[in-house]
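[Meeting: bench + compute handoff]

Bench side (C.D.) handed over the final construct sequence. Compute side (W.E.) agreed to return the predicted structure before the next meeting so the bench team could plan truncations. Sequence as handed over:
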Amino acid sequence: MVPKGFDVRVENQLVRFISQTPVDQDAVVAQLGGTATGGVVIKVLDAPRATVVIDAEGKIVIHGTQRVETARAAAKEFLLQMGLDDSGLTTEIGPMVASFDFEETIAVESIVGQVGAGDAQYDARLGCSIVEDSRHGVTMHIWPNGRCITTGAHSPNMVAMAAVYWKGVFDESGYFIQRI
């Protein structure tokens, strides 16, 4: 039987931009009312909706977007508000948070130890099983209703491949609960 495809939704994509001239954290605080905390400066943009984080090296990290194009628009808007040039802006794609649904009830309390190509543990506080997937390089949080949040991925396709793989592993191991 061929497994069906999964509808993978990118919840957040981290993207870092490097400007030709590093962004001055003090200037962000003074000009835009950014908040300095823990060695970074944070500024929330309304349009496009995103959180801009300026690190100690003056690099721009965009958080809260689902697409690289939206993150780039946020970085350009931020630089425009700062009165800085956006030409020569380089992009580094970071990890994403993505979700999908197995569409079956899962006995997550049973998914512990070495399972398939990963190590799993049950987190009672979150009420989910956490699988460190060494085959796909992602971490999966799996809830009893079949909902899965995946972190550490670099593409939605990798998340979909992990979903197909783990659906097969969970099927073979009997972790899906059959409803009568």
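W.E. noted at the follow-up: Residues 156-173 form the longest helix (18 residues). C.D. will use this when planning the next construct.
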